[in-house]
Amino acid sequence: MTEPAGPALPATLRSALTLGVLGVLLLLMLVWGWSSATAPLPGSEDDQGACEPFTVVAGERLDSSQVEVSILNAGNREGLAGEVMDGFVERGFREGSSGNAPTGTEVAKVQIWAADRRDPAVELVRSALPQPAPVVDIEINAPGVVVVVGNDFRELREGRTSITARQDGSVCAP
To answer: I want to staple 98 with a disulfide (CB 3.0 to 4.6 A). Which of 29, 81, 112, 125 is the partner?
Structure first.
């Protein structure tokens, strides 16, 4: 007969150790599950991260894929901002935010809210808008070039996909 290698642990101590190890595993799985459940979905805005601003120097090419556009609906046509955003995305622009314009905003057709109408990003976005598309110096907390559409807005023009900057400007790249 062979004898046991060492003293056996009492049953209560074995049970306590087993429960302790299982408790630690349960805690680890809860932490992992919670972090997975609260993480951004793949492909969501949070997952893509913030864009990095960079300067476009006069004479450089600016492509629509380098320009982020946000759309605000100043009218009462349901879903107008989303439709216009889809049109910009189809033309290669980066999707910013879309939603309703601040209360009291009156825009019949379309406006661009930007400080400088000669900014290369503004010029590129403006090429896709029906004329006239005035540029108004209104500060708003929305990413990229802000386009405000009203009830009389019908559709985007073909527009350009790139331009050569006539002056320095700032754009936001992924």
So the answer is: 81
Helix or strand run (H / E) with residue 173: strand 169-173
Cβ-based neighbour number of residue 135 at 10 Å: 19
Band of pLDDT at residue 50, cut at 50, 70 and 90: low
For residue 104, the one-letter residue type is: G
Strands (E), the chain: 52-56, 61-63, 68-73, 94-100, 110-113, 135-136, 145-149, 162-164, 169-173
Is the pLDDT at 46 greater than 60? The verdict is no
Residue 142 has pLDDT above 90, yes or no: no
pTM beyond 0.85: no
Sort 128 into a burial class: Cβ within 10 Å, 0-12 / 13-18 / 19+: buried
